[in-house]
Amino acid sequence: EDKYPYFLAVKFEYDQFELILVNVYIPPSTSQYYNSEYWMCLEVILEDIAILHPQSIVVLLGDLNARLGPSLHDFAQKKGIPGEFFESHLQWLSRDCKSNAAGLLLVSLIFKGNLQILGGKDKNYIYPYTHHSTNSSSVLDLFCVSRDKADLFSEVTVHLSDSSDHRPISVTL
């Protein structure tokens, strides 16, 4: 039995270029499929990638069920994330007004993993909703990249879609 069925890591190589894509689904904490070890496992995966592939561009994306509220910096500050986080991570704004425990785990992960959540190139860009249900909307689907390689990516585009309750997200490298 696969202990972590919701993780997929793929390495792409072209010339001197190496990109490691880590696609993740972490079920909501209320789901019978949720495992509290998922976040720790993801942290270990990212640490291993950093050690084994230090020059790679790391892309972490997927449905993390992590809600960060309207301001990443405000959320991190309220939760006691160290000050270095604010100095090294760009402000990130979203339409989502709620935050959750998974959001704190994600902020800790991007801080430890030297990642950055991609948004718009405009500092006032507000990340749109990525998930819609019958009575609510939220930002659950995120695109995080190696902080020192973030400038290689264009801004994130969240597309309209009727085929799922989650909207497709694209970015250009």
TrEMBL record:
GO terms for MF: catalytic activity
Top-rank taxon: Eukaryota
Ranges for domain Endonuclease/exonuclease/phosphatase: 26-166
Gene3D superfamilies (alphabetical): Endonuclease/exonuclease/phosphatase
Name of the protein described by the UniProt record: Endonuclease/exonuclease/phosphatase domain-containing protein
